[in-house]
Write a structure and sequence with these properties.
- With 555 residues, this protein is of the alpha+beta class.
- The chain folds into three domains: 11-166, no CATH class; 179-269 and 405-518, no CATH class; 326-388, no CATH class.
- It is 31% helix and 18% strand.
- The chain has 17 helices and 19 strands.
- It has helices spanning 11-25, 49-59, 62-68, 87-100, 117-123, 168-175, 179-185, 195-204, 229-245, 267-271, 288-292, 300-321, 390-404, 417-425, 475-479, 518-521, 529-537, and strands spanning 2-3, 113-116, 142-146, 151-156, 159-164, 215-216, 222-226, 250-257, 326-328, 344-351, 368-375, 380-387, 411-414, 426-430, 436-440, 449-456, 462-464, 482-485, 500-506.
- Strands 1-10-11-12-9 form a five-stranded antiparallel beta sheet, with no helix packed on it. Strands 6-7-19-16-8 form a five-stranded mixed beta sheet. Strands 2-3-4-5 form a four-stranded antiparallel beta sheet.
- Strand 3 (142-146) and strand 4 form a beta hairpin.
- Helix 1 (11-25) runs antiparallel to helix 12 (300-321).
- It is globular, with a radius of gyration of 25 Å.
Length: 555
Amino acid sequence: MNNIAGQIISCPQQRVIHHVMDRARLPAFDAGDGDAIGPYDGMLDTVEVAYRRRARFFLSFGMCFSQLGTLPGELRLSIEPLHPLPDLDHNQRIVDLLRTLGVKTPTDDQGLSFISRSMVNAYNPAASLFDNVDAPSSHPDLFLFDPLTGFVMWPQDGKIRNTWLGNQRDLVQLQTQPTAIKDVLLRGPSDHFCLGRSLMMRLVGPLLPRRRVVHDDDAGIPTLVVNDQAELDGLVDDLRIACERSPLKVSVVFRGQSREHRLPDRRNLVAALVTPYSDVRDHSIVPSLYRHYDAFLNDPNHFRAFAAHMLDWHFYSDMAFGDPVNYFTLDGQPYLPKPLTGPAAASCQVFAGDSSDLPRAFDGVEPHSVLTVTGSDGSVIDTYVKRHNLGFGNVRRNLILQHYGAPTPYIDVTRDIRVAEWFAFNKITVEPTGLSTSGMLPAPFSGSAIYVFFVPEGLAPMVDTEHLVTPDQALRPHRQACALLGGAGNLYRNAVSRFVGLKIKFADGFRPTGLQTARHLFPGPDEDDMLKRILALYKAPDDLPKHFPVYWFPE
């Protein structure tokens, strides 16, 4: 029984207190004795002594990592550093190791890194992520690692062996599909990494009302050139019809880019059989978080400031939304608890999470409480269910971060082809203040592309804006008809590229019609309450070489 009479600490007040405490708990690299024995030392015995202090420092962010994690139940890791090496040592060791593996003219700019077996196991001992790495026990703590694709590598018996450390849940989800679906998606071991292409060529493509000529680009992605707006609109209509006809529930979403990005050129690594899977330069769909993240690892003080900045952004989102729970009647109807006007007490029964029909992005955690509020005379004033949907709150928070300026492990996609076109044909410039400008690229749009993602239900964490916020809460993501597509993490940064099934390019004569203005897609604080609230809360850090401002388009 909790007495809730008298002064009550509101949810915003509690969140402010928690945020101050969260920031205060962040470890400082220069504090205390660098050689002191910490709680993780038993887990770090195999880490080289010269780097053990850095390893202990990174592991001390455990509470912060859990708060900034993206998906309950998904073993992707978020911003946990994978090794303790400073940049100079890291880069030199990469070059030296590649040279010993027979790579000609090795460099440190091909996207490879290291992963510490001890650190990864210490982040989540119950996960046993390294159990599938069948390397000799004598192998040093640091393994060669490809964070773009998720492969860990080691030399053994004169060969270079590898194991995939990406999210094992993805493999399990695929294997639990009906046989007919697996026969479409998985006809070879590499199909796991190109599900979108498999869907396009084997399922969606054959169901299109009208046949179209497509060709594979040099990365193996089906590519189609459109000549005008009417042809593009017709193609989009046909893709939606084909997905509706599909026996597998498939969502089709779009992402426009003013230029294509590729993974690093690794021909010399392929020739030496270090990364034989890199025989083509895949399209890079790496989320914003991992395009910036590595710059904060060299200086421990910068990493601490980066973590604090990310905590700040989470705080801004939570303050704008308020209480991150949902209230219902006992029979499941949305409910607003009655205000209390006098002394009262509450009894609370807490229940574990139950099964949910929510999308995979919300999966894993939904405990709930049944509260009964009684007056001083013992009469029941109110009874309701309080659902603590952690997955929902987490994804909603990342929606705000993604759309208003902070980096996240999600990719924003849209169901509106006109929105995808706008991003394909415009270049955005964001100043350090967050003030932004945009301008249409000159025709022809030969460098622009729209990526078409085919996302099978249950095989990727994707959720639409309307499941997260109302237009009154956050207008920008609604104006852009946005969805968040997850799946990436620090163990597999380019995971979302698996769902690219079609690339749309534009003929020289293509001219878009019906595109909205930047001001419409990015409404100002006079229209967008979320932008107004975050601008009022935001404080730029003064201890980071790069920060992430709230960006918007003034009149």
